[in-house]
Design goal:
heterodimer; A: 108 residues; four-stranded antiparallel sheet; 10 strands; B: 111 residues; mainly beta
Chain lengths: 108, 111
Protein backbone atom coordinates (compact mmCIF):
# COMPACT_ATOMS: atom_id res chain seq x y z
CA UNK A 1 0.00 0.00 0.00
CA UNK A 2 0.90 3.63 0.18
CA UNK A 3 1.34 3.62 3.99
CA UNK A 4 -0.63 6.76 4.64
CA UNK A 5 -1.15 6.85 8.37
CA UNK A 6 -3.46 9.07 10.36
CA UNK A 7 -5.14 8.61 13.73
CA UNK A 8 -8.47 6.84 13.72
CA UNK A 9 -10.38 9.12 16.06
CA UNK A 10 -10.03 12.43 17.86
CA UNK A 11 -12.38 14.23 20.21
CA UNK A 12 -12.31 17.91 21.10
CA UNK A 13 -14.47 20.58 22.66
CA UNK A 14 -16.31 23.28 20.78
CA UNK A 15 -14.07 26.32 20.39
CA UNK A 16 -10.87 24.32 20.83
CA UNK A 17 -8.09 23.47 18.37
CA UNK A 18 -7.37 20.02 16.96
CA UNK A 19 -4.37 18.90 14.93
CA UNK A 20 -4.67 15.82 12.71
CA UNK A 21 -1.34 14.32 11.70
CA UNK A 22 -0.65 12.35 8.56
CA UNK A 23 2.52 10.49 7.59
CA UNK A 24 3.27 8.94 4.22
CA UNK A 25 5.99 7.33 2.15
CA UNK A 26 7.97 10.04 0.38
CA UNK A 27 8.86 8.16 -2.83
CA UNK A 28 7.23 9.61 -5.94
CA UNK A 29 5.37 12.22 -3.95
CA UNK A 30 3.63 14.90 -6.04
CA UNK A 31 1.30 16.56 -3.54
CA UNK A 32 -0.95 16.08 -0.52
CA UNK A 33 -4.64 16.74 -0.11
CA UNK A 34 -6.94 17.08 2.85
CA UNK A 35 -10.64 16.39 2.51
CA UNK A 36 -13.57 16.60 4.89
CA UNK A 37 -16.31 14.01 4.63
CA UNK A 38 -19.57 14.04 6.55
CA UNK A 39 -21.38 10.75 6.95
CA UNK A 40 -23.26 9.80 3.81
CA UNK A 41 -21.79 12.64 1.78
CA UNK A 42 -18.98 13.03 -0.74
CA UNK A 43 -15.57 14.34 0.34
CA UNK A 44 -15.17 18.11 0.28
CA UNK A 45 -11.83 19.62 -0.75
CA UNK A 46 -10.02 21.46 2.05
CA UNK A 47 -6.42 21.94 0.93
CA UNK A 48 -3.69 20.92 -1.47
CA UNK A 49 -0.02 21.22 -0.47
CA UNK A 50 2.85 20.77 -2.88
CA UNK A 51 5.60 22.80 -1.23
CA UNK A 52 6.83 22.76 2.37
CA UNK A 53 5.18 25.10 4.77
CA UNK A 54 1.91 26.19 6.24
CA UNK A 55 -1.14 27.24 4.22
CA UNK A 56 -3.98 28.93 6.03
CA UNK A 57 -7.58 29.11 4.89
CA UNK A 58 -9.79 30.65 7.51
CA UNK A 59 -10.18 28.29 10.46
CA UNK A 60 -8.34 25.49 8.64
CA UNK A 61 -4.57 25.33 8.07
CA UNK A 62 -2.47 22.61 6.48
CA UNK A 63 1.25 22.01 6.89
CA UNK A 64 3.61 19.92 4.80
CA UNK A 65 7.16 18.69 5.27
CA UNK A 66 8.20 16.79 2.15
CA UNK A 67 11.51 15.57 3.55
CA UNK A 68 9.83 14.10 6.62
CA UNK A 69 6.78 12.68 4.82
CA UNK A 70 4.58 14.53 7.26
CA UNK A 71 1.54 16.76 7.12
CA UNK A 72 -1.01 18.05 9.55
CA UNK A 73 -4.41 19.67 9.33
CA UNK A 74 -5.17 22.23 12.01
CA UNK A 75 -8.77 23.01 12.82
CA UNK A 76 -9.24 26.13 14.94
CA UNK A 77 -12.27 27.49 16.79
CA UNK A 78 -14.00 24.15 16.44
CA UNK A 79 -17.70 24.14 15.70
CA UNK A 80 -20.19 21.31 16.01
CA UNK A 81 -20.46 21.15 12.22
CA UNK A 82 -16.76 20.24 12.06
CA UNK A 83 -17.64 16.76 13.35
CA UNK A 84 -16.69 14.65 10.34
CA UNK A 85 -14.07 12.34 8.89
CA UNK A 86 -10.88 14.04 7.67
CA UNK A 87 -9.02 12.30 4.90
CA UNK A 88 -5.35 12.71 4.07
CA UNK A 89 -4.49 11.77 0.48
CA UNK A 90 -1.24 11.67 -1.47
CA UNK A 91 -0.97 11.95 -5.23
CA UNK A 92 1.69 10.05 -7.17
CA UNK A 93 1.66 9.56 -10.93
CA UNK A 94 -1.91 10.88 -11.23
CA UNK A 95 -3.09 8.37 -8.61
CA UNK A 96 -4.65 9.67 -5.42
CA UNK A 97 -4.21 7.34 -2.45
CA UNK A 98 -6.18 7.95 0.72
CA UNK A 99 -5.56 7.29 4.35
CA UNK A 100 -8.31 5.58 6.32
CA UNK A 101 -9.52 8.91 7.69
CA UNK A 102 -9.68 10.51 11.12
CA UNK A 103 -13.11 10.82 12.70
CA UNK A 104 -13.29 14.07 14.64
CA UNK A 105 -16.03 14.46 17.20
CA UNK A 106 -16.72 17.94 18.53
CA UNK A 107 -18.45 18.06 21.91
CA UNK A 108 -20.30 21.00 23.42
CA UNK B 1 -19.90 27.39 -12.06
CA UNK B 2 -21.44 23.93 -11.82
CA UNK B 3 -19.69 21.28 -9.75
CA UNK B 4 -18.94 17.69 -10.63
CA UNK B 5 -22.12 15.87 -11.62
CA UNK B 6 -22.55 12.14 -11.29
CA UNK B 7 -25.49 10.15 -12.56
CA UNK B 8 -27.37 8.26 -11.44
CA UNK B 9 -27.26 8.97 -7.70
CA UNK B 10 -28.61 5.59 -6.72
CA UNK B 11 -28.70 2.28 -8.51
CA UNK B 12 -29.80 -1.25 -7.66
CA UNK B 13 -28.59 -4.10 -9.82
CA UNK B 14 -28.59 -7.87 -9.57
CA UNK B 15 -25.55 -10.09 -9.61
CA UNK B 16 -24.22 -10.78 -13.08
CA UNK B 17 -25.57 -7.58 -14.59
CA UNK B 18 -23.43 -4.75 -15.83
CA UNK B 19 -23.65 -1.06 -14.98
CA UNK B 20 -22.43 2.22 -16.45
CA UNK B 21 -21.91 5.31 -14.32
CA UNK B 22 -21.42 8.80 -15.66
CA UNK B 23 -19.39 11.77 -14.48
CA UNK B 24 -19.42 15.29 -15.88
CA UNK B 25 -16.44 17.30 -14.61
CA UNK B 26 -16.28 20.96 -13.72
CA UNK B 27 -16.12 23.05 -16.87
CA UNK B 28 -12.52 23.38 -18.01
CA UNK B 29 -11.28 20.42 -16.01
CA UNK B 30 -9.59 17.78 -18.12
CA UNK B 31 -8.66 15.22 -15.48
CA UNK B 32 -11.27 12.81 -14.14
CA UNK B 33 -10.55 10.10 -11.61
CA UNK B 34 -12.79 7.41 -10.15
CA UNK B 35 -12.89 5.89 -6.67
CA UNK B 36 -14.73 3.17 -4.85
CA UNK B 37 -15.63 3.78 -1.23
CA UNK B 38 -16.71 1.01 1.12
CA UNK B 39 -16.84 0.96 4.93
CA UNK B 40 -14.20 -1.74 5.11
CA UNK B 41 -11.72 -0.53 2.48
CA UNK B 42 -12.15 3.22 2.55
CA UNK B 43 -11.54 5.19 -0.63
CA UNK B 44 -9.80 3.14 -3.31
CA UNK B 45 -8.48 4.55 -6.59
CA UNK B 46 -9.92 2.98 -9.74
CA UNK B 47 -8.45 4.98 -12.63
CA UNK B 48 -7.62 8.45 -13.90
CA UNK B 49 -8.19 9.96 -17.33
CA UNK B 50 -6.80 13.07 -18.93
CA UNK B 51 -7.67 14.14 -22.47
CA UNK B 52 -9.23 10.75 -23.20
CA UNK B 53 -6.12 8.83 -22.06
CA UNK B 54 -5.95 6.62 -19.02
CA UNK B 55 -2.82 7.67 -17.12
CA UNK B 56 -3.05 5.33 -14.16
CA UNK B 57 -5.23 2.61 -12.78
CA UNK B 58 -5.70 0.96 -9.42
CA UNK B 59 -5.71 -2.68 -8.41
CA UNK B 60 -9.18 -3.67 -9.53
CA UNK B 61 -10.16 -6.61 -11.74
CA UNK B 62 -10.70 -6.14 -15.45
CA UNK B 63 -14.47 -6.07 -14.88
CA UNK B 64 -13.95 -2.42 -13.98
CA UNK B 65 -13.30 -0.21 -16.97
CA UNK B 66 -13.66 3.39 -17.92
CA UNK B 67 -13.32 5.91 -20.67
CA UNK B 68 -13.28 9.63 -21.22
CA UNK B 69 -14.84 11.54 -24.07
CA UNK B 70 -13.54 14.57 -25.94
CA UNK B 71 -15.69 16.88 -23.81
CA UNK B 72 -13.97 15.42 -20.69
CA UNK B 73 -17.08 13.60 -19.52
CA UNK B 74 -16.23 10.16 -18.25
CA UNK B 75 -17.99 6.86 -17.77
CA UNK B 76 -17.06 3.81 -15.80
CA UNK B 77 -18.45 0.37 -16.43
CA UNK B 78 -18.61 -2.66 -14.19
CA UNK B 79 -19.47 -5.95 -15.83
CA UNK B 80 -20.63 -9.19 -14.23
CA UNK B 81 -21.54 -7.48 -10.99
CA UNK B 82 -20.77 -9.16 -7.69
CA UNK B 83 -22.26 -8.49 -4.26
CA UNK B 84 -18.93 -7.04 -3.18
CA UNK B 85 -19.20 -4.31 -5.80
CA UNK B 86 -21.83 -2.60 -3.67
CA UNK B 87 -20.25 0.72 -2.79
CA UNK B 88 -20.29 4.45 -3.25
CA UNK B 89 -18.56 5.30 -6.53
CA UNK B 90 -17.06 8.76 -6.60
CA UNK B 91 -15.50 10.73 -9.37
CA UNK B 92 -13.29 13.76 -8.96
CA UNK B 93 -12.24 16.35 -11.49
CA UNK B 94 -9.26 18.68 -11.64
CA UNK B 95 -7.42 20.82 -14.15
CA UNK B 96 -4.52 18.36 -14.13
CA UNK B 97 -4.24 16.28 -10.95
CA UNK B 98 -4.07 19.35 -8.77
CA UNK B 99 -7.04 20.55 -6.68
CA UNK B 100 -9.49 17.70 -7.14
CA UNK B 101 -13.20 18.16 -6.45
CA UNK B 102 -15.60 15.28 -5.91
CA UNK B 103 -19.09 14.71 -7.20
CA UNK B 104 -21.86 13.47 -4.92
CA UNK B 105 -21.28 9.90 -5.96
CA UNK B 106 -23.36 7.01 -7.21
CA UNK B 107 -24.46 4.56 -4.57
CA UNK B 108 -24.57 1.12 -6.18
CA UNK B 109 -26.30 -1.76 -4.47
CA UNK B 110 -25.90 -5.24 -5.92
CA UNK B 111 -28.49 -7.77 -4.80
Amino acid sequence: GQNIDQPTEMTATEGAIVQINCTYQTSGFNGLFWYQQHAGEAPTFLSYNVLDGLEEKGRFSSFLSRSKGYSYLLLKELQMKDSASYLCAVIRDYKLSFGAGTTVTVRA
Amino acid sequence: KAGVTQTPRYLIKTRGQQVTLSCSPISGHRSVSWYQQTPGQGLQFLFEYFSETQRNKGNFPGRFSGRQFSNSRSEMNVSTLELGDSALYLCASSLDSDEAFFGQGTRLTVV
